[in-house]
Amino acid sequence: MKPRAFLPLALGVLIGLAAGLYYSWVVNPVEYVDSSPASLRQDFKEDYLALIAAGYAHTGDLQHTRARLSSLKLEDPASALSRLAQSRLAEGQPEAEVLALAQLAAVLGQRPVPNAATDRVASTATPSAPSSSPTPSPTATRTPTPRPTATPGAPFRLTDREQVCDLRQGESQIQVRALDASGEGIAGVELLVIWDAGQDHFFTGLKPELGAGYADFAMQPGVTYTLQLRDGDRPITGLSAPDCADDSGVSYAGSWLLTFQQPSLP
Amino acid sequence: MRFSSRLFIGLFIGILLGVLYGWVIRPVEYIDTAPDSLRADYYNEYVLMVSEAYAADGDLDLARMRLAALGPRPPVNTVVAAIDYGLEHGYSQLDLETLNRLVVDLRAMPPSAEIDTP
Questions:
Q1: What ipTM is given for this predicted complex?
Q2: Cα(A182)–Cα(A185) distance, rounded to whole angstroms?
Q3: A27-39: per-residue pLDDT in tens?
Q4: Does A75 touch chain B (CB under 8 A)?
Q5: How far does the CA of residue A23 sit from the closest CA of chain B (Å)?
Q6: Residues 118-137 of A with CB under 8 A from B
Q7: Closest by alpha carbon to A44, among B102, B82, B43?
Q8: How many CB atoms lie within 10 A of CB A146?
Q9: DSSP string of B26-50?
Q10: Do A36 and B57 touch (CB under 8 A)?
């Protein structure tokens, strides 16, 4: 066959290839009907994350919650939850949703997340003793995990007020630690900050890497703040950036670390 | 062989290769999917999470909105289907009760609230 004889064949292949690709990519592409939560669009993924947190708030089943989180294939679920809690708080989303996100972020931030795949098996299958007879199919079980939560009715009291001079912080802050009677940090404690020109509220547990009961608020120089815990016994007034000095005597604005604790129940 | 015959043979081979490449070797990747395309187990897990969230916050409108992300099917039917799935796949009694509570409350909604106004 002469080389020229291949010309129509090659031309046909090219046109056919283009038509085939057009058909398979545009006209009738592969349809994914069995996708996983990891492939969800970002906003749906965030909704899914919020639902996981809400589910955990209802069931308290950490193993099952970890299994759900693993389906999203997040590198650092605690940080993702914490970021989402902060953005939802800023958006003015329902308080229950923000609290659920903050609490789950705090719980995950306290302990390393073990292999989720193992968790999935552990959370869905009930181990059975070796037997030659047919065993019933595995049944789903739920084991609520105890979480540090605020003791109802016990108001927080200021137990320590410490001036913090640390140049590495980069800004002047009101830092808060909310502890239960046994000294465990409590996530989801609401704090209200009031100053002359406005007010803001935030929650403990949004920075799980710093502890479940930790929260901070950036202070502006020259502004005096009042801090009130929603479950606190009295507001802390007159909070303004304290004066600190570095090694060479240059002054800078420091921070306050306020520790609140619930009293032991009689 | 005539020009047109060679062209058609080439076309046939080209289409075959194109479809093979587009469907098998490098299919379209969906990275921004919606919850209605979730696999059955994830789909029903989503419905369960909505019912758990509802059990926690009691916000029925929010639950309906969340269920709307799963497609145009009426929310009640979606949750009933999830209960059927749960019965088949060994959901715990607690899960089934949580789903059932949402169905009961969705059914108790006034009919006018079920109709979405533009």
A1: 0.72
A2: 9
A3: 877 666 677 898 8
A4: no
A5: 7
A6: 137
A7: B43
A8: 7
A9: SPPP--SB-GGGB-HHHHHHHHHHH
A10: no
